[in-house]
Design a protein that fits this description.
Elements: E1 3-5, E2 11-13, E3 22-24, E4 27-29, H1 58-85, H2 117-120, H3 134-152, E5 154-155, H4 178-187, H5 195-203, E6 206-222, E7 225-241, E8 247-251, E9 263-271, E10 281-288
Antiparallel strand pairs: 1-2, 3-4, 5-6, 6-7, 7-8, 7-9, 9-10
Keywords: Membrane, Transmembrane, Transmembrane helix
């Protein structure tokens, strides 16, 4: 066993090399900072690395298969829905198909002349001589019909108040000339008293003009003024309530024939611009189911 001397000259004995290790149950423990085997090599970040195998598991395969089946089912359902909503019309063969070729449609003769305007729209004598055209006749008929509808239509819900009539009771004033408006306020039964107003309110009457048609009878020149007589025929439809509140709706019938009662309104028109309606005719006077008043000496 080797020995050594310290600085005092004393001799100390060094243990053998084998005694440098401490044992426990004959299992030696190495002193700290002892080399432990060869270190693992460090890979460069540029070198490719081998990835582990990522093969789908059986559960993942089953999940993908279910999604595919679900997608096909949805596509099939959408296709069936589109066919139901937008069916495709297929040609259906007929058993009795004609065996002969179709004959061409007969075309009108190119030399045939179109009917005259007087055949489509009858006008009285002197209409063209007065400088009027078929469009003037259409305008006169339109004004006469609009006036009759405004005059004859009634609605208890749109009639103004008892002290001041309005609504359907005064709608016809828009078609009247200034002089006719004065006569309307003093002579029309819608304005002179409350008899008609009370009747309409008590019966809750709603009255409408049906099937109006017109015919221009005569025209007359009086100085610079031009007048036209227009006859408007029509029927009336009424809706009213009885004492129990139940509504009765019907066409007004002729008490003798029990057929729709055809009524006539004679309308005298004056050629001139109506600033209220934009038409070229104004109503000067009118009469229901009676000959026109002798305001003008119409031959």
């Amino acid at each position: 066993m080797p020995s050594t001397h310290n600085k005092d000259g004393q001799e100390h004995t060094l243990p053998d090399k084998e005694d440098l290790f401490f044992t426990f149950d004959d299992a030696p423990f190495e002193a700290p900072f002892q080399p432990s085997g060869e270190a693992a090599p460090v890979l460069s970040p540029l070198e490719p690395r081998s990835e582990p195998s990522t093969a789908p598991e059986p559960a993942l395969k089953r999940r993908r298969w279910k999604w595919r089946v679900a997608g096909l089912t949805i596509m099939l359902a959408v296709g069936v829905l589109l066919l139901l909503l937008y069916p495709v019309a297929l040609p259906v063969p007929t058993a009795d198909a004609p065996k002969h070729p179709l004959q061409p449609t007969q075309q009108p003769s190119p030399t045939a002349s179109p009917p005259e305007s007087s055949a489509l729209l009858p006008v009285p004598n002197g209409w063209k001589q007065a400088g009027l055209t078929p469009i003037d006749a259409l305008s006169a008929q339109r004004v006469a019909i609009d006036f009759v509808q405004a005059e004859m239509n009634l609605d208890y819900r749109n009639a103004g108040i008892r002290e001041q009539h309005g609504g359907t009771f005064t709608a016809a004033m828009a078609f009247l000339s200034p002089a006719a408006k004065e006569r309307f306020l003093h002579y029309d039964r819608r304005m002179i008293n409350n008899v008609l107003f009370d009747q309409v309110q008590q019966q809750q009457l709603v009255q409408m003009v049906l099937h109006p048609s017109t015919q221009i009878h005569k025209i007359q020149q009086d100085g610079d003024e031009l007048f036209a007589w227009v006859d408007v025929s029509f029927t009336l439809y009424q809706s009213l309530a009885d004492q129990t509140g139940k509504r009765d709706e019907h066409t007004v019938l002729d008490p003798k024939t029990q057929k729709p009662l055809i009524q006539h309104m004679q309308v005298l028109l004056l050629a001139g611009l109506n600033t209220a309606t934009g038409q070229s005719w104004l109503v000067t006077t009118y009469a229901l189911n009676a000959p026109p008043p002798e305001i003008l000496d119409v031959p």
